[in-house]
Amino acid sequence: MDIQIEKGQSVVTIRLYDAALLGDVPFLLHLLKEDPLILERCIIEKSSNIKQSPLHVAVAMGHLEFVVEILRREPKLDEMIDNLKGSSPLHIASAKGHLQIIETLIGAKPHMCFARDQEGRTPIFVAAVSGQIDALDSFIGQTLMQRRGGPMTVKLYYICVSYITS
């Protein structure tokens, strides 16, 4: 995975992205002792020169324990949209089919199932077009499908993907 960090990033921030890439929770905890505001800084810095949050990176790499720890410490990161494709961490998990991460992210912020990326796609749609049938099952299994069109939309995606992949 190519992490895009631009000029002017602090060494501690770069080390945080290294920890996210490796899923190194003990190193994350060490960095948080060194700089308790490092995750807040990522939110502030992201608006100017970081393309993805450390949560996006950990989700893409499938590091569940790192995802859980970072959400426990800074839940706002779950709602951050990256500067690459306008994707939330849930979009990325849906595309990759990281089921436990999908369930963790939905559990933290159920409304993010309806967030749209730059192309107008929801995480449910991303799972469908990526052929992630098990991910669709995760969305169906959640009680968040109370929104208009929720369960029927997911079931329709599921039927389409099942047809295409069979």
What does this structure look like?
- Pfam families: Ank_2.
- There is one protein chain.
- The protein is an all-alpha fold.
- It has 2 domains: 1-84, Ankyrin repeat-containing domain (Serine Threonine Protein Phosphatase 5, Tetratricopeptide repeat, Alpha Horseshoe), CATH 1.25.40; 86-166, Ankyrin repeat-containing domain (Serine Threonine Protein Phosphatase 5, Tetratricopeptide repeat), CATH 1.25.40.20.
- The protein is built from 10 helices and no strands.
- It has helices at residues 11-22, 25-34, 38-46, 54-61, 64-73, 89-96, 99-108, 123-129, 133-141, 150-165.
- The radius of gyration is 16 Å and the shape is globular.
The CATH architecture classification of the largest domain is Alpha Horseshoe
Structural class: mainly alpha
Q: For the record, what CATH class of the largest domain applies?
A: Mainly Alpha
Helix content: 55-70%
The backbone outline, from C-alpha atoms, is: globular
Residue-averaged pLDDT = 80
What's the order of the H and E elements? HHHHHHHHHH
CATH superfamily of the largest domain: Ankyrin repeat-containing domain
Separate helix tally: 10
List segments where confidence is low: pLDDT < 50 over at least 5 consecutive residues: 1-8
Instruction: Write down the CATH topology of the largest domain.
Output: Serine Threonine Protein Phosphatase 5, Tetratricopeptide repeat
Rg value: 16 Å
Largest sheet: none
Strand content: under 5%
The strand count comes to 0
What number of domains?
2
Keywords: ANK repeat, Repeat
InterPro entries: Ankyrin_rpt, Ankyrin_rpt-contain_sf
GO cellular component, one term: plasma membrane
ANK repeats: 85-106
